[in-house]
C-alpha cells in the first residue's frame, strides 16, 4: 500500500508527510535519498549503501530511506529538481546535505557519523549539538558550485608533532596543505598539556606505549592548525575513472539525461588521505570527526569564532621627527583610543637612504631636499600596530599625504590635526600594503634569537604558566626540547661560569630532572628575555621586579626557575651548539632598505 512504509531491498520508502514524521523517530543515522516521482531514486548509490550496511552491521544505528519530494511538504524545495540529493538525519535532526551522487563523500560522511554514534552509545563521548539544516529553494542558493552543504563550515584539526617541529618540517607541511586547496583558518605553536594530549588521543589510550607517547607529546613544541576545505575547485581534486560499484555515473540511472560518453568524475581526498598520499601523515595527526573537531576547537582555540571573523593585521607606522618630539603622547593616546595595539616601538634616526625611500612619493616636489633634512635631523618613532583591518583603519585615521587635501576633505584626520609649519606633508607614515608592512617590520624590527632554559625544579603547572608569560610577552618559541643536562651539555649553556667554584652546585640542580631548552625569537629578544626573567636572586626580584618570572617561581639563587643568554653573541653560539642550527651573524639583518622593500607608488 502506498500509504504505508514498506521495505524495498535495503531502503525504506517514505512517500507522505506522516511517514516522513515517523521516519524522524529513527534512532541513530538515517541516510535519505530525496527523489522526484518522474525520475525515481538514485540507483547508482545503492551498491555503496548495501556495502556499508553489510560492513558496518549496524541495523539499530544505520537506516537507508528513499523519500518522494512530491508528496512530502517538508521537501517541497526539492521538487522539480533533477540532481540527486542525500540528507543525513541523526535522531530526527537533519544535520547535513550532499548534492550529487558523490560516492566517496557520502561514504566518508556515513562512516564518520556511525563512528560518532558508536562512541556515544559506548559512553566515550557526549552527543554534539548539531545545527539543523534549513531547506530553501536550491535555485536561490549557490549550492550548485559545491557538492557539500551544511549549516556550518566543516573543519579539521591537525597537530604537527614535536619531532616534526624540531626537524623544521612545519613550513613544508603547511605549504603542502595550502597547495592542495585547504585553508588554514588559525594556527598556534604551543606545548600541549597532559590533559589535552589524553583528550585528543583518547582513541590510543589502550595502546601499551600510550604513557610514553603522552610524555613525548608534552615535552616538546607542537603546531596546532584548524583547517577548512576551502574552494572545491582546487588542485586537490584529481580525476579518477568511475568505479562501477561506488561511483557509477548518475546519468546512467536518470533516464531523462544523456551521459556524455567521455565523462570522468572528480574526487577530492580528505585531509588525512591527502597527507598519506604525500607521505607526511606520520609527522602530524588529524581529527576530522565533526563532533570531536568542534570539541577540540573549543579546547585549543576557545575564541575561534570571534578570532576567525576578525581580520587582524600588522603594519608599520612612523611619527616623523618634529611630531615625535612635540606631540608624541597626544598621538599615542589617539592610537590607543582608536583600538590599535602597539606591539613594538623604537626611536630611530633614519639614514639619508632610508629617508629617501620612505619619502619616495615626494621626490619631485620642491621641498624634497628640506624634507630629507628634517627626516634625518633627529629620531623618528617607529611602531608596529595591530588591530582588525589595521591597514585600512590607519589610512583612514591619518588621512591623505597632503596637508592641503586633509584640511579641505578630512579636517578631523591626524594629518590635519598635527600639521607642521613649513612641511606640507602628513607627519605620520603607514605601510601602503600588507606585503610592504611585512618587509618594513622585518627591516625596522629585525627578529633576534636567544636561548632560554626552564630548570628541573619547576613543576609542570609552573612550566605552563612560564610558557604563557613568554607568549604574552610577544616571543615566538621557535624551537624547544626537553633534556637532562649532563655536564657536557651544561658546559655549552653555562660556559662563562664553568670554572667557578659554585658551578658544581649548578650541575647538581640541573641533574635533578629534565630541563626545557628553548630558542625564543623576537626583536630585541636577548634583553627582553632578561628583563622578563628578572634579577638572579628571587628575593631581589620580588623587590625590584615583582612581576618577573624569577620573582614568581624562583626559590633560591640556584633554583631561580629560568636562565638566558647574556648577550647576542653568547646566544648565537649556544643555540648553534644546542640545536645545531645556523643563526645569522648579523642580528640587525640586511640594512639595504631599498633592496628589501619595493618602491612605494601612489
Automatic annotation (TrEMBL):
SUPFAM superfamilies to which the protein is assigned, alphabetical: Nucleoside diphosphate kinase, NDK, Thioredoxin-like
GO terms for MF: hydrolase activity
SMART domains given in the database record: NDK
Domain annotation Thioredoxin: ranges: 1-119
Cell compartment(s), UniProt: Cytoplasm
Transmembrane segments: none
GO term, biological process aspect, one: spermatogenesis
Keywords of this entry: Cytoplasm, Developmental protein, Differentiation, Disulfide bond, Hydrolase, Repeat, Spermatogenesis
Gene3D superfamilies: Glutaredoxin, Nucleoside diphosphate kinase-like domain
Predominant location: cytoplasm
Pfam families according to UniProt: NDK, Thioredoxin
Entry keyword annotation includes Disulfide bond: yes
Domain of life the protein comes from: Eukaryota
Gene Ontology CC terms, in alphabetical order: cytoplasm; sperm flagellum
CDD domains tied to this protein: NDPk_TX, TRX_NDPK
Subunit description: Monomer.
Function: Probably required during the final stages of sperm tail maturation in the testis and/or epididymis, where extensive disulfide bonding of fibrous sheath (FS) proteins occurs. In vitro, it has neither nucleoside diphosphate kinase (NDPK) activity nor reducing activity on disulfide bonds. Exhibits a 3'-5' exonuclease activity with a preference for single-stranded DNA, suggesting roles in DNA proofreading and repair.
Recorded family membership: Belongs to the NDK family.
Protein name: Thioredoxin domain-containing protein 3
